[in-house]
Amino acid sequence: MKTNKNRRAGLGLTIMMILTVLILGACSANNTTTATDTRTKVGIVLTEVGLGDRSFNDAAFDGLVQARNEKSIVFDYREPGDNAEAAFEEFAEVKFDLIIGLSDAVQADMEKVAAKYPDQQFLMIDSQSELPNIASISFRAEEGSYLAGVIAAMASTEDHVGFLGGIEIPVLRNFEQGFKQGVLAVKPNATVDVVYAGDFGNADLGEQLAAQMIQEKGADVIYVAAGLTGVGALTEIQKLGKYAIGVDTDQFFLAEKAILTSMLKNVDVSIYNAVNTFVKNNHTFPQKEIVEGLAEKAVGLTALHNITLSDEQQQTFEDLKAKISSGQIKITLDQ
User: Fold this and answer.
1) Shortest CA distance to 100 belongs to which of 278, 300, 286, 294?
2) Any residues with CB less than 8 A from the CB of 18 and at least 6 apart, and which?
């Protein structure tokens, strides 16, 4: 009898231990959920092109993915099409801690919503706002574009290059003007054609425009800054046996026989840093306006492909880069 009682007691103790483990496990799971729920909540409204542009939107998204993977934030995103205002409104209504908008293409919509929610913090990429609750990150992309112009001039055998942009907005005008001045710094008599597609999301249009710039105008190197429209252009430039310079991310894999380099605007790094700054500073930004360029390594060029610079060309490139970084060379911008 004592043996049976002991067995029953032991069995009861075992069951209690199992139940205790299960309860503690449930509590642990609940604590994990709570921890996730209390992370900083970030919402991002992409441009109308959305993800898959292999450029600006994808880079911004990657910066948030990195922050999320390091468990500093949770985030959600919207591909707004032509209704960015509704996307901003949605994030504001559920009180996301930080709401990000990409480019001045969505600025007007962000400002409408920010004015309605003055206690909500917004972050604008590639533009600036006078509203007190909109911080901004801007890039001196003209500095990286200047270097792209230097390389284009060195690679061109026709002394005839081109710039193919998406929509003619102030940011891309800066790209264009930096590029032009970089080309002319190396070859003062070179021709620089400028074409704007009026669209960031039309690969077929990009192909057509690139073909026209090469076959009708005579450009043999084209700097492409046009999102998905630019992807089509890069494909066509390779098909026609000419050279291209990509933008925002390393686009070498899109046209490996054509790409000389890509002008990196490190949107992913800047957004990642800004989000972490926001988290560490109790959901505030120490600076309302952040402006970064070559000196801060926020812009620059990837490694060179399909071209080998002579010693003299390499020295020229390094000298010009140093002068841009130090401010000795000033790029003229006219909006």
Assistant:
1) 278
2) none
Contact 129, 111 (CB under 8 A): yes
- Of the candidates 328, 307, 284, the residue with the CA atom closest to the CA atom of residue 98: 284
Q: Is the pTM of this model over 0.85?
A: no
pLDDT per residue over 39-58, tens digit each?
999 999 998 888 988 778 99
Element (H, E) at 207: helix 203-215
Token pair for 274? 């800004």
> What are the residues whose beta carbons fall under 8 Å from the beta carbon of 150, sequence distance 6 or more?
182, 183, 185, 186, 316, 317, 320
Q: Are 101 and 129 in contact (CB under 8 A)?
A: no
DSSP string, 36-90: HHTSEEEEEE--TT-TT-SSHHHHHHHHHHHHHHTTSEEEEEE--TT-HHHHHHH
The pLDDT tens digits of the residues spanning 14-39 come to 444 444 444 444 333 333 334 446 89
Who contacts 308 (Cβ-Cβ below 8 Å, separation ≥6)? none
- What is the signed CA dihedral for 85, 126, 171, 145, rounded to 10 degrees? -150
Q: Of how many residues is the chain composed?
A: 335
How many whole angstroms separate alpha carbon 133 and alpha carbon 110?
11
Residues 6+ apart with CB under 8 A from 50: 57, 79
| Secondary structure class of 269 (helix, strand, coil) | helix
Contact 37, 275 (CB under 8 A): no
Cα–Cα distance list, 93 to 89, 97, 187 (Å):
6, 11, 54
125-182 pLDDT, tens per residue? 999 999 999 999 999 999 999 999 999 999 999 999 999 999 999 889 999 999 999 9
Buried b (16+ CB within 10 A) or exposed e, 211-239: ebbbeeeebbbbbbbbbbbbbbbbbbbbe
Residue 306 has pLDDT above 90, yes or no: yes
φ and ψ at residue 281, rounded to 5 degrees: -105, 35
